[in-house]
Write a structure and sequence with these properties.
Helix content: 10-25%
Shape: globular
CATH topology: Aminopeptidase
Oligomer: single chain
Radius of gyration: 18 Å
Number of domains: 1
Number of helices: 5
Distance between the termini: 30 Å
Strand order of the largest sheet: 1-2-3-4-5-10-6
Order of helices and strands: HEHEEHEHEHEEEEE
Length: 188
């Protein structure tokens, strides 16, 4: 329940719709997401709409190639989830649940979904647990050597690969934070 007492109840559920939207429609919402940028290869963008107002977005993208092998078939990554603060908190689980239904109906070839919770931003995966996703360890837990990001020594801007760093920047190596991994099999 939010401080003002609102809950995502039957009335909210009855007046909200989930529909496929294009990137330009979702761009303003992605800019409000804590990462403020789009993931690599987007395969599906769904919006949460109420009374013709776009109040949330969920974006699925293609994960690294080895993810399909890990989960035994075509896997999509839930890579962005954002819901306006005016919407009751449990709307995230509603949006995830409806997105899963949509994918099962429209994309039966998709075998599983995966997502990550980044503890460096205070995310522990609570919304995934509430949506019945299965915890699947942490990223990099099988690695023998730690991974690093590169950061601009003056601004702190991070770069995931050395090749992406502009040539005139002084960099520092920053240990990469291991994220919590969750998956959702679609053949349940």
């Amino acid at each position: 329940m939010k401080p003002d007492g609102t809950v995502f109840d039957r009335e909210w559920r009855a007046t909200c719709a989930i529909r496929q939207i294009d990137k330009s429609s979702a761009n303003a919402l992605i800019q409000k997401h804590y990462l403020k940028k789009w993931p690599g290869v987007n395969v599906l963008i769904l919006g949460l709409e109420r009374h013709a107002a776009l109040l949330g977005v969920i974006v699925f993208s293609l994960p690294p190639r080895e993810t399909n092998k890990r989960y035994g078939g075509e896997t999509w990554e839930l890579s962005r989830l954002w819901v306006d603060d005016s919407v009751p908190k449990n709307a995230e689980t509603f949006l995830i649940g409806r997105a899963i239904r949509y994918i099962k109906k429209k994309y039966p070839q998709v075998h599983a979904l995966v997502s990550y919770a980044d503890p460096s931003f205070g995310h522990l995966g609570v919304v995934y647990k509430a949506s019945n996703w299965t915890p699947d360890g942490r990223t990099d837990q099988e690695r023998k050597t730690p991974r690093f990001d590169y950061a601009d020594a003056k601004t702190g801007k991070k770069y995931g690969r050395r090749a992406h760093v502009p040539p005139d920047i002084e960099i520092v190596r920053v240990p990469r934070v291991s994220k919590f991994r969750y998956f959702y099999p679609l053949n349940k």
